[in-house]
C-alpha cells in the first residue's frame, strides 16, 4: 500500500490537500478560509468553537481534542473565579491575622537559632515578617474550602460527562460502528495476540523498565543537586557582609533554585519525550492504537515525575528531617538540611509551583509552539528559495495545491497537545491548596492555547488524515488518576504543609482566651546555646547586639529545663494525630460528596446507552418499514401468480376472489391488463 | 385490564399455571418436575443450578436472582477458606502469644481497679486470662491481612463482573431490548414526569423523612436501653456472693444482652418491613420499578441501622468514654459507662457479631422461611376442608390445575430474599476483621438457602409472572456502597478496636529487647486508691486478701506521682497518631490495589459492549441478506412486468431478452403462461 511506497521512498509524503488558501483577496470561499476567520484567530476567543466544522475538516479525533479542550477551559472559569475570591479573602484578612501580627511585632523580640552552622548567626523572628504575611495569603481557612472544591472539581469535572458534552460524537460513533465492527473485531483479536506473545518481547520490556527507572533516578539526582545548591548558596550568602543581601537570602536562594529547576524540567521534557518514543519503538507494538497508548503511558510517567518531583520535595520533605539545634541532620556529612521559613513551607511551595507552572506555560507551550514552527517554516522556505532562485516569483504563482501544502509541517499527532494539558491539569488540581490562582493562570493560558493550536492546524500543518475516535482514550484514565491523586495530595498539603491544623489544635487545646494570641510562641521550642556541639555554634554570637542564652526553633520539643530535654513533646504527637485525622476526614468527605454528586446528577453513560438504544430502535423500524413495503409488493406479485392457475374471479365463485382486489394501485392496473 | 378487574374483586387472583404436579408416581414429565428433582432438593447442593431452566420457567428476574445467589455463594468459598486458615493460625499461635501469657501469669499479680462503684472490688488481672487468650484468636496479625483480603473481595468481588458471569442474560437482554425499547422509552418519560412533579407529593416525603428519623431514633433508644441493662446487670451480679458467678460476669452479661439485641432486631425487622411498605405506598410512585426502588431503599436503610447499631456501638464506642478511676463518666448520673475486657473490645465485638449473625440466619431465614409458609399452607388447607367436608376426596381428584395452584402462596417479590442476602453480605464484609469465620457461616447458610428458596418457588408458591430484568438493579448499588463502607470500617476496627497498633507501637518505640515482654504493663496506668471520690471506693477493699494502694486501669495516663497526674500521656497521642496513620495507609492501599485489579483484569462492561456490537453486526447482516433476497425476487418480477410491454424475445433482437431467463422457477412458469 501507500505506506510501503512511502517507506521505500517512492513517494516523499502522502497527505490530504487543504481546501484552498485561507487568506488573500482573490480566494474563493472554502472551509479552510471559514475556519481561519471563525476559529483560528484571537479575536473570537470569547466564542464557542465551530466543533462541527472542525470535525468535518480535520476529522473526528482532532475535533474531539478541541471539544475537550473547550470544555476543560470552560470548566476552568468557575474554578478560577473561586480561586480569585479565596485569594482576595486572604488579602483582606492579612491584617487581622494574629499569628503574622505577632511575628512582625518588634516588641516581643524572639531570638531564633542560626539557620546554618558557624557562618549564620542568631536572627530576630520579626525579620521574617514579610514571609509570614505573604504566606497568610495562601494559608488561611478559605484555602481548605477551596481545596475541597477543587478536589470535587477534579474528581467530578472531567469524569466523562463533559467529554460527552457533544453527543453527536458518540451517536455518530455508535452508528458507524455498525459498518466498522467486523474490522474492529479482527483488530481486537490482533491486540489479543499481542498480549499473548508478550514473552517473546521480554528483553524489550526489560530495557524499558531499566531505562525508565534510570531516568527517574536521574530526575531525583538533579533535584537533590538543586537542594545542595540551595543549601550551600544560603551558607555563602549568609557570610556576605551587606545586611540587604542577608535580609532576603531566602527569596534569592529560592528564586534562583526554582529557575534552575524550571530550565532542567523544560530540557528534560524534550529529552524524555524522545526517549519514550524510542523505547516504544523497540517494543514493536502491533497496532497503531497500542503504540500510541504505550508511548503516552511512558511519556506521561517520565514527564510527571520530572515536573512534580521538586514540588513534592518542597511540599512534603523540606524541613521535616532537619533535626534540632545541637543535633542537626547532615547530608554528605557537611550540608545541613534546610529548614522552612517561619511562615511554613507553604509559601515556598507556592513560589515553586507558580514559577514552574507559569514558566513552563510561557516558555514551553507558547514560545516553543509559536517560535519553532515559524523557524522551521522559514528554513524550509529558504531552502526552497536556494533550490529555485530564478523563476521563484512565477513558480509561486503557478504552484499547485499539493506543492503549497508540501511546504507545511507534517502533522505529528495530538500527544504533545494532550500531554501539555494533562500536566497543566495536574498543576491546577494536585497542589491547588497552596496556590489558589493556578486555575486562573491555566484559564488564561488555555484561551490563548485554543486559538494557537487552531492557527497551527489551519495555517502551519499539512491537512491531517481524518481519524475516527470514540473518546479521548487513555487520556481519560490519566485524568481520572490525577483526580484521585489530587484528593489525597491536597489533604496532605493542608494538614502537613500548611499551619492550618496546628492553629486549630492551639485554638481548642491550649489557647487561654480562645484567641490565637501566643500561637507563634507555642510553635517554637527553646534551645540552650550552651548545648551546641562544638564547632557548630555561630562565630559572632553578639551579632544581634546582645548575648543569647536561649534561642528558639520551630518544632515541638521539650525545653532545656525538662528532665528529658529536647525530646519530642506531647504537643508534637497531639498535632500529628490531628493532622492525620484531618486527612482521613478530608479524603472520605470528598469521596462521599463525589459519590453523592454522581448519584444526584445522572451522568452521561446512561444517556449514551439510551442514545444507543434509540438508534437501534430507529434502525430496526427503518428496516421493518422497508421490509413491509417489499413484503407487500411480493405478496401482490405472488397473488397474481396464484390467479394464473385460478379461474377468473366473479360473483359465481366469490371464494376465488383475491381479498386484495382493493390492493395497491399497480396490482389493479396489472389486473385490468389481464382481463 | 386484568389489574382493574382484580382490584374490583371481579377475579380473586390471576396467575400463570404451573406445568403440572412435581411429585407422585403417575405424573407425566414436565419442567416443574424436572426443576424439583434437579434443583429444588438438598441432595444436589454441590451441583451448579440449572439457571437456564429456571429462567425459562420462572422468568428472567428470578433466574437472575438465583444466578447472583449462586455466584455470591461460590465467591464465599475462597473467603471462608482464608478465614478458616486465619482462625487456625490464631489457635496455633495462642500459646506463644506473650501478652496473653503475661496476663495469665499468676506470679506478677496486677491489681485492677474495680469495674463498678462500691459493690465491685479490686480484681486480679489474671482472672481475665480466658478472655485474653480467646481474643488472641481474632486479634492477631493474620487478621490484618485477612481484612485487606476481604476489603478487596468486597470491593471487587461483586463489582458487576460476577453478575455478568452468565453472559446469556445480557446478550438476550440486549437482543430483546430491540423490540422492547419503544415501550421502555415511554416508561422513561413517565418517570421523568414523576421527577418533575415531586412538589405535589411533598407532604408524603415529609412523612417519610420524619418517620424514618423517628424509627432510627427508636433503634438507638433500644440499644441504649440494652446498654443500661448490661451495666446494671453487671453491678447486680457483682454483688452476688458466689465467686463462680462473679468470675464470669462479663460472659453472662454480654451473652444475655446480645440475645436481647437479637430478639429486638428480628422483631423490628418485620415491623420496619411493613412500615417501609406503607411509607412507599403513601408516596404513590408512578411506575412499578420506582415503587420497588423506593421501597428497597427505605427498607434497607431501616434494617441496616437496626441490625448494625449494637455492633457499631461495641466496635467504636464501648469503653471509649469511661473516664478514669476517681473521675468516671456517668449516664443519668447513676450508671457508670462500661469498660472493655482487658483483652480489648474485639472479643466482645466477635461475640456480638457471631450471635447476631448466626441467630438472625437460623431464626429469621430458615425457621421463618420454612415454618411460616408451612403454617399458612396448613391454615388454607384446613379452611378449604371446612368449606367442603363431604366430597373432599374426589374433589381433590377432580381438581383443575388452577384450583390446585390457587391453594399456593402468591409470589410476594424478591425483595426479602435479596435483603436477607445483602444484610448477610454486610456481616461478612463490614466487621470481618473481628470475626474471620463469618464467611464460612454465610457459606453454609447460603448452600441451604439456595435449595430452600428453590423448594419454595417450585412447591409452595404460585407460578410468578415472568419479568424481564437486565441486572439486579438497585441491589448492585447497595452492594457497591457496602463494599466501600467495608474498607473504611475494617480499617477502623483494626486500628481502634483491636490491640494491633498499640502492640506495634510498643514493639518499635518502647520495647527494651525488641520483644512484647512488658506490653501489658505498658498499656495499664496506675491509680492511687486514696484519690477515689468519696462514695465510689469499693466497700470491701480487702477482698483480694491484701490492702491495695495502687490499682491499675487500661488507659494511657500520667501516673499519680507525676506533676499533672492522671492527665492523658504522650503515649496516648503517639498511639492515636499511629492508629490514624494506619487507617490512611490501609484505605489508600486497598483503593490502589482494587484500582490495580480493575486495570489488570479487563472487566465485563467491555465484553458487554463487544457483545452488543457483535449482535448489531449479526442483525444488520441478517437484514441485509433478507433484503437482498427480496430485492432479487422483486427485480425478477419487475423484469417480467417490463416484458409485458416488450416484444417477445428471440434471437432477432437479443437485447430484449431478459437476462434472468435462468431466473427462479415461478417466474418461468409465469413466463410460459403468458406465451
UniProtKB/TrEMBL annotation, chains A, B:
- Cite the Anoctamin dimerisation domain residue spans from the record: 1-51
Q: Where does the UniProt entry say this protein principally localizes? A: membrane
List, for all copies, the residue spans of the domain called Anoctamin transmembrane: 54-153, 176-615
Q: Where in the cell?
A: Cell membrane; Membrane
Membrane topology value? Multi-pass membrane protein
GO MF entries: intracellularly calcium-gated chloride channel activity; protein dimerization activity
What are the record keywords, sorted?
Answer: Cell membrane, Glycoprotein, Membrane, Transmembrane, Transmembrane helix
Question: Its domain of life?
Answer: Eukaryota
Q: Where is this region: Disordered?
A: 640-665
Q: Which residues cross the membrane?
A: 65-91, 205-231, 251-275, 295-316, 421-444
Q: What is this protein called?
A: Anoctamin
**Species assigned in the record:** Rhinopithecus roxellana
Task: Write the gene name.
Answer: ANO1
Amino acid at each position: 500500500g501507500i505506506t510501503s511506497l512511502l517507506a521505500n521512498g517512492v513517494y516523499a509524503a502522502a497527505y490530504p490537500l487543504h481546501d484552498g488558501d485561507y487568506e488573500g483577496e482573490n480566494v474563493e470561499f472554502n472551509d479552510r478560509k471559514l475556519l481561519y476567520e471563525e476559529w483560528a484567530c484571537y479575536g473570537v476567543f470569547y466564542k464557542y468553537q465551530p466543533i462541527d466544522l472542525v470535525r468535518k475538516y480535520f476529522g473526528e479525533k482532532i475535533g474531539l481534542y478541541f471539544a475537550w479542550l473547550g470544555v476543560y477551559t470552560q470548566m476552568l472559569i468557575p474554578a478560577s473565579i473561586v480561586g480569585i475570591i479565596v485569594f482576595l479573602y486572604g488579602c483582606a484578612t492579612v491584617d487581622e491575622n494574629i499569628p503574622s501580627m505577632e511575628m512582625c511585632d518588634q516588641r516581643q523580640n524572639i531570638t531564633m537559632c542560626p539557620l546554618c552552622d558557624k557562618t549564620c548567626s542568631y536572627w530576630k523572628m520579626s525579620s521574617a515578617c514579610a514571609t509570614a504575611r505573604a504566606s497568610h495569603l495562601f494559608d488561611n481557612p478559605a484555602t481548605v474550602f477551596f481545596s475541597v472544591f477543587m478536589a470535587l472539581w477534579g474528581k467530578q469535572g472531567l469524569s466523562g460527562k463533559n467529554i460527552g458534552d457533544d453527543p453527536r460524537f458518540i451517536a455518530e460513533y455508535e452508528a458507524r460502528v455498525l459498518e466498522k465492527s467486523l474490522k474492529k473485531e479482527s483488530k481486537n483479536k490482533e491486540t489479543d495476540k499481542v498480549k499473548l506473545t508478550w514473552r517473546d518481547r521480554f528483553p524489550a520490556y526489560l530495557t524499558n523498565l531499566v531505562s525508565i527507572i534510570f531516568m527517574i533516578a536521574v530526575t531525583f539526582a538533579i533535584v537533590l543537586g538543586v537542594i545542595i545548591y540551595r543549601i550551600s548558596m544560603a551558607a555563602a550568602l549568609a557570610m556576605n557582609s551587606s545586611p540587604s543581601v542577608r535580609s532576603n537570602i531566602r527569596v534569592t536562594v529560592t528564586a534562583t533554585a526554582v529557575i534552575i529547576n524550571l530550565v532542567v524540567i523544560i530540557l528534560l521534557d524534550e529529552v524524555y519525550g524522545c526517549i519514550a518514543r524510542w523505547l516504544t519503538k523497540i517494543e514493536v507494538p502491533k497496532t497503531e492504537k497500542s503504540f500510541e497508548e504505550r508511548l503516552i503511558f511512558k511519556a506521561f510517567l517520565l514527564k510527571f515525575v520530572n515536573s512534580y518531583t521538586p514540588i513534592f520535595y518542597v511540599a512534603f520533605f523540606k524541613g521535616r528531617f532537619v533535626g534540632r539545634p545541637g543535633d542537626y541532620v547532615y547530608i554528605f556529612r557537611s550540608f545541613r538540611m534546610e529548614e522552612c521559613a517561619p511562615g511554613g513551607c507553604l509559601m515556598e511551595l507556592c513560589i515553586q509551583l507558580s514559577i514552574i507552572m507559569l514558566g513552563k506555560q510561557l516558555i514551553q507551550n507558547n514560545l516553543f509552539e509559536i517560535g519553532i514552527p515559524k523557524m522551521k517554516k522559514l528554513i524550509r522556505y529558504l531552502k526552497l528559495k536556494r533550490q529555485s532562485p530564478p523563476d521563484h516569483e512565477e513558480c509561486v504563482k503557478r504552484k499547485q495545491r499539493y506543492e503549497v501544502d508540501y511546504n507545511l509541517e507534517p502533522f505529528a499527532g495530538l500527544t504533545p497537545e494532550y500531554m501539555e494539558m494533562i500536566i497543566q491539569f495536574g498543576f491546577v488540581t494536585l497542589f491547588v491548596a497552596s496556590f489558589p490562582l493556578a486555575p486562573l493562570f491555566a484559564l488564561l493560558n488555555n484561551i490563548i492555547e485554543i486559538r494557537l493550536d487552531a492557527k497551527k492546524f489551519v495555517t502551519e500543518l499539512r491537512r491531517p488524515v481524518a481519524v475516527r475516535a470514540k473518546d479521548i482514550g487513555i487520556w481519560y484514565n490519566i485524568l481520572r488518576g490525577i483526580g484521585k491523586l489530587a484528593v489525597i495530595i491536597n489533604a496532605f498539603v493542608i494538614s502537613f504543609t500548611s499551619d492550618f491544623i496546628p492553629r486549630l489544635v492551639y485554638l481548642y487545646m491550649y489557647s487561654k482566651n480562645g484567641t490565637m494570641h501566643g500561637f507563634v510562641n507555642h510553635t517554637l521550642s527553646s534551645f540552650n546555646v550552651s548545648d551546641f556541639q562544638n564547632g557548630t555554634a555561630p562565630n559572632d554570637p553578639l551579632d544581634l547586639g546582645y548575648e543569647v542564652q536561649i534561642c528558639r526553633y520551630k518544632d515541638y520539643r521539650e525545653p532545656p529545663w525538662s528532665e528529658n530535654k529536647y525530646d519530642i513533646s506531647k504537643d508534637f504527637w497531639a498535632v500529628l494525630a490531628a493532622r492525620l485525622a484531618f486527612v482521613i476526614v478530608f479524603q472520605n468527605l470528598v469521596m462521599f460528596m463525589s459519590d453523592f454528586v454522581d448519584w444526584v446528577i445522572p451522568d452521561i453513560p446512561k444517556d449514551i446507552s439510551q442514545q444507543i438504544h434509540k438508534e437501534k430502535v430507529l434502525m430496526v423500524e427503518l428496516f421493518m418499514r422497508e421490509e413491509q413495503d417489499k413484503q407487500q409488493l411480493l405478496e401482490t406479485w405472488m397473488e397474481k401468480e396464484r390467479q394464473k392457475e385460478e379461474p377468473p374471479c366473479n360473483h359465481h365463485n366469490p371464494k376465488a376472489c383475491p381479498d386484495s382486489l382493493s390492493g395497491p394501485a399497480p396490482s389493479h392496473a396489472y389486473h385490468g391488463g389481464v382481463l
